[in-house]
Amino acid sequence: MSGKAKAIIAHITLIGWIIALILNMNDKDEFASYYIRQYLGIMIIGVLGNAALNMVNGTLAMVWGVIMLVAWLLSLIGAITDKKNETPVVGSYFQEWFKGL
Q1: Which of 98, 75, 97 lies closest to 86 in space, CA to CA?
Q2: Is residue 24 a contact partner of residue 32, using CB atoms and an 8 Å limit?
Q3: Three-class SS state of 82
């Protein structure tokens, strides 16, 4: 399976991310690894940010959800177009934090 296909699969729910991770472990592809790391970061900050903002204000949590949707779409579009698009502001941190993937 190509790195592009694995990168796209990684963006399709948590199960897709796990499948892409397992497929990439057997046949390592740098492009797929890049997007596996990006999407893991998006998922983590999305869940943590939503949980924190829900305790403060539901409206802020909805705004955060829209921001995470945009981040997911930008990442998915990068995977589809074969370009390494970093998630704005935090993408470089994702690459550093999750470099073992």
Answers
A1: 75
A2: yes
A3: coil
Whole-number Å distance between alpha carbons of 89 and 95? 12
Q: Which two tokens stand for residue 19?
A: 């499948």
Tokens representing 6 are 């694995």
Q: Quick: pLDDT tens for 29-58.
A: 999 999 999 999 999 999 999 999 988 888
The structure's pTM equals 0.88
Q: Which of 36, 29, 28, 30 is nearest to 8 (CA)?
A: 36
Q: How many Å apart are CA 51 and CA 30, to the nearest integer?
A: 32
**DSSP 8-state symbol, 12:** S
Hey, what are 55's tokens?
A: 């305790």
Q: Which two tokens stand for residue 35?
A: 């997007």
Q: Are 33 and 6 in contact (CB under 8 A)?
A: no
Alpha-carbon separation of residue 43 from 2, 27, 73 (angstroms): 23, 24, 13
